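Table S2 (continued). Query chain:
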Amino acid sequence: MELTSRQRAYLKGLSAKLEPVVQIGKSSLTPAVTQAVDDVLEKRELVKVSILKNCTDDPKELAEIVAQRTRSTVVQVIGKKIILFRPSKKHPKIELPD
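Corresponding output:
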C-alpha cells in the first residue's frame, strides 16, 4: 500500500502519542517478533517498534523486512524507532485522508 504525503503526515501525527509495544533485541527479527507485530497491527493498525541498542542491524532494513513479512507499510523510521501501518481486516479504525 502506497501512502500519499498527506496520509503519511496524518499517521505520523497519530503515532507521536504511541509508546513502542514491540522491541527488537540482539536476536534481531525472530518469527516471534514478526508475529507480535502482526498481532498488534491487526488490533491497532498503527504500531511503533523500538530497536534496542544491542541489535546491530540497520533500522531501515529491519523496517522493510518487517513490512514485507506483515504486509504493512513503513510510515517512518526515526533513529531506532519504526512506525508501521496496516488497515485492520476485521475492525478498521483509522480513516486516512484522501
